[in-house]
Structure formats: structure tokens, C-alpha cells
Specification:
Number of strands of chain A: 12
Strand order of the largest sheet of chain B: 1-2
Helix content of chain A: 25-40%
Number of strands of chain B: 3
Number of domains of chain A: 2
Helix content of chain B: over 70%
Order of helices and strands of chain B: HHHEEHHEHHHH
Shape of chain B: globular
Largest sheet of chain A: 5 strands, mixed
Number of helices of chain B: 9
Distance between the termini of chain B: 16 Å
Strand content of chain B: 5-15%
Radius of gyration of chain A: 28 Å
Structural class of chain A: alpha/beta
Strand content of chain A: 15-25%
Distance between the termini of chain A: 60 Å
Oligomer: heterodimer
Order of helices and strands of chain A: HHHHEEEEEEEEEHEEE
Radius of gyration of chain B: 22 Å
Structural class of chain B: mainly alpha
Number of domains of chain B: 1
Shape of chain A: elongated
Strand order of the largest sheet of chain A: 1-4-10-3-12
Chain lengths: 245, 256
């Protein structure tokens, strides 16, 4: 069914636009040459008729999008709490998570000693308890490797995880720190007209009249930092220690 | 009278008048295009939005549809019907009687409704194409995955008939106005009073979700998901509106 309130708002808008349109039409319309009218109409008609063909090539097919998985809202927290039983490979193979970015930071390990270790600072990020860092000390790497994951987040069936900006890591004055760039996502959703589903009540009810996009874990990040064994470091961040040895 | 001389049937005169009216009023389509342009502007800028944000997160989600285009087209149909009804008293045809004038009017209105139905059907694709080309992160709702040819046919068919209803309502009002002049406004006032009193009475006497407001009227058609019952409702409505306007036009002087 049409949203009646919506309709009323538009009717009010028409009273404004419509009056202008009628006045200008009564004034201009009667004087517009008929051939011009027909010509413009033909152009508009051709544009409209060719649009389904163009849409076939340009518009992304909604049926080709992956089926959204049923992911618990705070899945990333579960992973963070359970870090001791997880490995980087587990996270990479986890369907509920997606890898956003890998940063490799080459370091001269000899620059850091027990007296002057590498400081690792977690940035001010939400609340301290949501500090998303997991530090793994391993012999498989000879430099600092930082892998960022995020929980998959769907709006309708669209995965917005691709749009998350990865954290920006760097080393300065013996400290490894990061800045968090702002993630900006502007989505435009086009939904089918209700009249197209006039005789299909079930589908019709799925059309949103007001979109509630549900839960968005803004802080759904997991950051896995791999450090070489020989590297001396000192963790200076807030929040829980998550160090795998 | 000419028909008697040249033995032209009324129907062929009516068809000629239909053609002539279409050509004479061809600028109406220009008007529709202007209204559609406004509709495109509204539908691309006023999507119902959802905004959320945080320290490092900014998100907006807008929902848009072709609804403004439909409303614009309905507005156009009402105006066209109304101006046809109004023109009844100043028919410029030398050869005309009530039947031919009436027949050609409803034929033109039906052609308008068909055209409007087609235009609005395709306008959805046009928005999709422009959205994909010029708007970042434009996506189709997942419901599009389950929409097929039959749904587009439904969209066109229902759209056309709804437009026709609005056009016929406009036509009836226009006819009644030009027929009854001052009494028309009296009648309008009376109808409003009867309607309001009726809805008060109904709401007092029947305890239930029945009321006589506009949305009930809309629901009567839009909530009907059984095809044939819906078709019967719509066709009977159109027939009743045509019948009423024919009764009003029947004894009317055409060439004043």
C-alpha cells in the first residue's frame, strides 16, 4: 500500500510546485509550437525506452549479491575474548569476518633493546574495553605485520564492510601507533514501486516504508599484530592485554 | 447534422475528434514532462534517510523510489480530466454532439492513462541508470531479485487503471462544474458535510476499523491482492464515474 502520509506531504509540495507549473504551462504551454512538444516527447520517450537496455548493462544485478549471513551482533567481541584459541589463519577463514587491510612495517630490530623497547600504543578508540588489538609474537615474520579485520555488516543484502577505512599505522620515536581515518559511507537504495507487487502481499510487506537498518557495529574491528620474536616491545595502550606467545 | 448529409457514422466522427483532440492538446505531454522533471528532482533528493555516526564513522542511507513520479502523474491526469470536462461548454467543433464529444473525451483520457502508465513504468529504469552512473554506492533493493516480467506488467496495468480513475474523477468534477456552475460549489459543500457526518455516524455506530476517510478509500483498492476482485472493483469504479459524467453531459448544450 502507498504510504498515505507520504502522499499527503507530496500533495502539499504539489500545491506549491503545481501552481507554478500550471501558471507557467497555461502561459507558455499554449504558445509552445506543437512540433517542439512532439519532438521533446519523442526524445523523452526514446530515453525512457532505451533505459531498460542501459540498465541491463550498467545497474548491478540485485540477485547476484551474496546472501547475507546471520552473524551475531557482537561477534567481533567474541573473537577478541577468545583470542587465545584463535590463529590468524582462523580469522582469515572465518566467514563472519573479512580482511580489510594488511600493513607491513619494516623495522631494524637491533634499534630496540630492553632499555629502549618498541612502544605499542593503542589509539583512543571508543572505550578502553573495546580495544581491538591482539598481539602475537611469532617466528614466522621478521617485521611488524598488522592485519585488520572487520565483522561483515549487511544493509539489506549489501555488504558495507568493503567501505571501512583501514587504520593508518606508523612508527615514530620508538613508538608504533596509528591514526583512525573517518569512514564515510553514503548509500542510496532504490526500492521497487509497491504497485509492481500489488498482487503479491508477502513481497509487498517487505518493502520498507521507513528504513530501519538495524545494528551497525562501528567498532567491529579486530587488529592482529604480528611481532618478530626477537623484538623488544612494551605495550602502552589502554584496555585488556591480549598477547599471544 | 453533417453526419446526416455525408452519412458519416457517429463513431467515425468521434474517432476523428479523438485524433484532433490528441493533436490539439499535444502540449499536455510537455506539461507532463515538466511535472516528471520535478518528480525526478524530488525522488532523487528526498529519499527517506537514515543517518548514523560516531567518532570515526559517518554513514547515511537513503531510500528512494518512483513514488513522486506517480503522484506527479496522478496530478497531471486529474488536471487533464478536469480541463476536458471544463471544455465541454466551449467545444470548438462544428460537427459535434454529446455522444461524439463524450466518446472522444474518454478515448483521449484512456490514451493519456496508457501513455502515463508506460512513462512511469520506464521512469524507474531511467532513475536506476542515472543513479548507477552519477551516484556512488547506488544499489537496488534485494526485492529486485524476485521481480520479474509479470511484476512489470502488473506495475503498468495497475498504474494505467489507477491513472484512469484519477483522470475520470477529474473529468466528472470538470463536467459537473461546467454543467451546474454555481450549484456545483453548493453540491461540493453538501458532499463534504454529508461525508463528514457520515464518517462520524459510522465511527459511532460500527465499532471497528471502519472509517470513511481518504486512506480507507485508498486501501479499498490498494490492499486488494486478489487480481479479479481488484479488476472488478477498478472497472466498476471507472464505469460508475463514466456513467455519472455521461448522465451530466447528456442533456447539456454543447455549442453554446
Amino acid at each position: 500500500m502507498f504510504n498515505i502520509n507520504f502522499l499527503l506531504i507530496y500533495l502539499v509540495v504539489f500545491l506549491l510546485f503545481g501552481t507554478v507549473a500550471i501558471v507557467s504551462f497555461r502561459f507558455i504551454g499554449s504558445r509552445t509550437p506543437k512540433k517542439l512538444s512532439i519532438g521533446l516527447m519523442l526524445i523523452y520517450g526514446a530515453l525512457l525506452l532505451s533505459s531498460p537496455i542501459a540498465a541491463g548493462f550498467i545497474v548491478e544485478d540485485a540477485s547476484e549479491r551474496e546472501e547475507p549471513l546471520d552473524i551475531p551482533h557482537f561477534y567481533f567481541e567474541e573473537v577478541l575474548v577468545d583470542y587465545e584459541n584463535r590463529s590468524l589463519l582462523d580469522l582469515e577463514q572465518d566467514d563472519f569476518l573479512q580482511k580489510i587491510h594488511v600493513t607491513e612495517i619494516p623495522l631494524d630490530i637491533e634499534d630496540f633493546s630492553t632499555d629502549a623497547p618498541l612502544g605499542i600504543r593503542s589509539p583512543e578508540y571508543g572505550h578502553n574495553f573495546s580495544n581491538p588489538l591482539i598481539i602475537e609474537i611469532t617466528d614466522t615474520v621478521d617485521q611488524v605485520v598488522i592485519t585488520q579485520f572487520t565483522q561483515r555488516i549487511y544493509i539489506d543484502t549489501y555488504n558495507i564492510g568493503h567501505h571501512f577505512e583501514p587504520w593508518d599505522w606508523s612508527v615514530a620515536s620508538n613508538e608504533l601507533y596509528s591514526t583512525i581515518p573517518t569512514t564515510e559511507i553514503n548509500l542510496y537504495n532504490f526500492h521497487p514501486p509497491k504497485l509492481a507487487l500489488h498482487f503479491d502481499r508477502e513481497l509487498q510487506e517487505k518493502i520498507p516504508s521507513y528504513q530501519n537498518i538495524g545494528f551497525i557495529p562501528r567498532e567491529g574491528a579486530i587488529i592482529w599484530i604480528q611481532l618478530p620474536e626477537e623484538l623488544e616491545f612494551h605495550y602502552r595502550g589502554g584496555g585488556p592485554w591480549r598477547i599471544k606467545e | 447534422m453533417n453526419s446526416m448529409i455525408r452519412k458519416e457514422s457517429q463513431l467515425s466522427i468521434a474517432l476523428i475528434q479523438t485524433k484532433d483532440k490528441l493533436y490539439h492538446n499535444i502540449n499536455a505531454f510537455l506539461f507532463l514532462m515538466i511535472l516528471h522533471l520535478i518528480g525526478y528532482l524530488i525522488s532523487s533528493s528526498s529519499g527517506m534517510g537514515y543517518l548514523t555516526g560516531g567518532d570515526y564513522f559517518d554513514m547515511s542511507y537513503r531510500n528512494f523510489s518512483v513514488a513522486p513520479l506517480y503522484v506527479m502523474t496522478i496530478f497531471w491526469m486529474i488536471l487533464q480530466g478536469f480541463s476536458f470536462g471544463e471544455e465541454k461548454s466551449r467545444q470548438y467543433y462544428m460537427v459535434s454532439n454529446n455522444f461524439t464529444a463524450y466518446f472522444s473525451d474518454i478515448a483521449v483520457l484512456e490514451i493519456y492513462a496508457l501513455t502515463a502508465g508506460l512513462l512511469t513504468l520506464f521512469s524507474g529504469f531511467l532513475i536506476q541508470v542515472f543513479g548507477s552512473l552519477f551516484v556512488g554506492n547506488f544499489m537496488l533493493h534485494s526485492l529486485y531479485a524476485s521481480i520479474g516480467i509479470s511484476n512489470y506488467l502488473t506495475l503498468w496495468f495497475t498504474g494505467t487503471l489507477y491513472f484512469l480513475i484519477f483522470g475520470t474523477v477529474g473529468y466528472l468534477v470538470g463536467i459537473l462544474r461546467s454543467r451546474y456552475r454555481s450549484r456545483f460549489f453548493l453540491g461540493l459543500l453538501l458532499t463534504a458535510v454529508v461525508w463528514i457526518l457520515g464518517s462520524i455516524l459510522v465511527s459511532y455506530s460500527i465499532q471497528g476499523p471502519v472509517s470513511l476517510d481518504i486512506s480507507t478509500v485508498f486501501r479499498f483498492y490498494l490492499n486488494e491482492s486478489r487480481f479479479f476482485i481488484w479488476l472488478a472493483k477498478v472497472l466498476l469504479t471507472i464505469a460508475a464515474l463514466y456513467g455519472l459524467s455521461y448522465l451530466a453531459v447528456k442533456n447539456m448544450e454543447v455549442n453554446r
